[in-house]
Amino acid sequence: MGAGGALDDFPHSPFLGELIVDYTRGKWADNPIDLVFNGDCFDFLKTGVNDAWPYHINKEIALRKLDSVLGAHSAFLEAIDTFVHRGGGRNTVHFVTGNHDAELLFPAVQRALRNACGGHELVRFPGFELNIGPVHFEHGHQFDPLFRMDPAHTFVSRDAEPLLNLSWAAIGLLSIVMPMHPILYFYDRVLPRSLLFELFPDLRELFTALAWRYWTKDFWRGFLIEKDPLLRFEWTMAKEVIKRIAFRNTEVIIDNQNLADDLARGDYQLHITGHLHEIGYRQVGAQRVIQSGAMRDEYFIGAGGTSFKPTLKGFVEVLIDGTDVVGLNTRELHGPVRPADHMLETILDLAPFVQEQLELLGDTTRQVAASQKQERIEAAESRKK
User: Fold this and answer.
1) Among 77, 111, 206, 253, which residue's Cβ finds the most Cβ atoms within 10 Å?
2) Are 62 and 101 in contact (CB under 8 A)?
């Protein structure tokens, strides 16, 4: 959930609110329920402040972002209040922290959100992970090298003021992509990303050029000259950035080895993650891993880029009896229709803007983008041969 309007990836509070309240009726009414928002419930990452996208996030900036988001989603807040109230002390709400809502780590943000939801103590903030009996929840960004935050150092100090110790990727997105988000926002909702870039290669070149400029120029100025406490140099991260730029990989990931290591440390019957925006299932030894899907608005490209089919909105129901998981249900629903003025007509609607931005980037980054484009053309011709 963002700050409302066309830029909000989930402007459907009444739809979500009704779904939440349904779990206080019928067969659910007499059962204690834990409602888990498994990270990225709120899109603070894409919520600006005074038309800017700062990555030095202090308490005041975090609270302003929260106010912007909650102001657009009153039906959600009312539903949470109703859900907890009707539970009579048996229903609990958990907001796990994801890579888009790291601001939830501020105690002041937790207090403000709890108060907005009716002031219930059963609205809780477990941090990056949560255990409920035999089930372990975490968003999944902690298994993604570029999005991982240090759980032992979630804040850094600058002038005695705590700042969120954001991941490399979050700082990069706020510095590179978000300034163009008010115009290019719809492309972030389009699937599959590989087809988007195949139909609109200049868009990939633009993001590649922006990333190249940031990691070879802007980052080093902040790191070496300004001594920014949030800008850290780590060889493992540098290699990951270079790898993703070289292979033009813009997707989030869950590193399988990191996930396997985490599973080995726990003794859960079920491990639930998000982050990848798709429903999935796998067995790792005696443990089951469920990818829970996503609720935000996303669209599959159709007709060569001239139509967009909305994806289903996925989530998971888990039934627990004592110390055992006795039921598991993945659900997918059709969401509300998005207003037409929030949509593009074709993939190439914003091609003139992208071309203009490529020209404005300057000689070095433009040459890098052109070189990479030529490499892609030559590789395609080689495959044809």
Assistant:
1) 206
2) no
DSSP secondary structure letters along 297-324: --EEEEGGGTEEEEPPEEEEEEEEETTE
Q: Which residue has tokens 């990452």?
A: 45
C-alpha separations of 182 from 7, 51, 210, 305, 359 in Å: 7, 9, 16, 21, 19
- The radius of gyration of the chain from alpha carbons, rounded to an integer in Å, stands at 22
Tokens matching residue 134: 């035999």
Q: Which two tokens stand for residue 362?
A: 């300057």
Which DSSP string corresponds to 147-189? T---TT--EEEETTEEEE---HHHHHHHHHTGGGHHHHGGGGG
Show pLDDT as tens, one digit a residue, over the chain (385 residues): 999 999 999 999 999 999 999 999 999 999 999 999 999 999 999 999 999 999 999 999 999 999 999 999 999 999 999 999 999 999 999 999 999 999 999 999 999 999 999 999 999 999 999 999 999 999 999 999 889 999 999 999 988 899 999 998 899 999 999 999 999 999 999 999 999 999 999 998 998 888 888 888 888 888 777 888 898 877 676 667 666 655 455 678 888 888 888 888 888 999 999 999 999 998 877 789 999 999 999 999 999 999 999 999 999 999 999 999 999 999 999 999 999 999 999 999 999 999 999 998 865 555 555 665 676 677 667 766 6
Retrieve residue 96's tokens.
């796990």
Domain ranges of the chain: 13-384
Name the strands in the sheet holding 123-127, side by side, starting at the edge strand that comes first in the sequence. 34-38, 92-96, 123-127
Sign of CA dihedral 185, 191, 197, 198: negative
**Chain centroid, CA 363 distance in Å:** 33
CA 285 – CA 287 distance, rounded (Å): 5
User: Which of 13, 352, 3 lies closest to 183 in space, CA to CA?
Assistant: 352
